[in-house]
Amino acid sequence: MSRLVNEENKGNGEIHLTSNANQSVMFLQQFIRNPKQVGSVIPSSRFLASKMVQSVPWNDVTTIAELGSGTGAVTRFIQRRVTGSTNVLLFEMDEKMRSDLQANYPSFTCHSNACHLTKMMIEKGIHQLDCVISGLPFFNFKSDLREAILHQITEALKPGGRFIAFQYSLQMKKHLSEKFLIDKIDFVPFNFPPAFVYSCRKKEGM
């Protein structure tokens, strides 16, 4: 993003302006504090964010979750595609980023821990999700954390539900193929680091 991000607060008419520099500094600070959970020193590029939402069948989406929302690089593109009746759940561990997300996207609900995805759905009266979008660096996680989150995703998704995730390598391909049908993997060079976008569907019986 090469300009100021102007997000209108639909709840009270306020406008929140966040510069790229501020977003990058915030992201870098989080990376320094917890590099394994962040995975990158800067937010996702608009090219990566755009590719992430292209694989979502938006006409069929009434419930969606984004895991690892960060500074909202992908969230902005999600906001452009959803309708006012779409239930959107955002998950971000960093308290400052989560607070900014809630201010900029008041119609979405923000939560801290993706390991509590299904619990948050129950609290919101959501039975199943049509889609999960993830920016979490799964390969960096300890195996028990990785398995816990992936289990939450498969439990949350409807049969055939979509799972869209970006990773910085193909090291998760075999592991993801055990839990999802991988329709395609797109390479996005215009991102730092370059990224791979996995477009998956929930397997039957999962």
UniProtKB/TrEMBL annotation:
<feature type="domain" description="Methyltransferase">
    <location>
        <begin position="64"/>
        <end position="161"/>
    </location>
</feature>
<protein>
    <submittedName>
        <fullName>Phospholipid N-methyltransferase</fullName>
    </submittedName>
</protein>
<dbReference type="InterPro" id="IPR029063">
    <property type="entry name" value="SAM-dependent_MTases_sf"/>
</dbReference>
<dbReference type="InterPro" id="IPR041698">
    <property type="entry name" value="Methyltransf_25"/>
</dbReference>
<keyword id="KW-0808">Transferase</keyword>
<dbReference type="GO" id="GO:0008168">
    <property type="term" value="F:methyltransferase activity"/>
</dbReference>
<dbReference type="Pfam" id="PF13649">
    <property type="entry name" value="Methyltransf_25"/>
</dbReference>
<dbReference type="GO" id="GO:0032259">
    <property type="term" value="P:methylation"/>
</dbReference>
<keyword id="KW-0489">Methyltransferase</keyword>
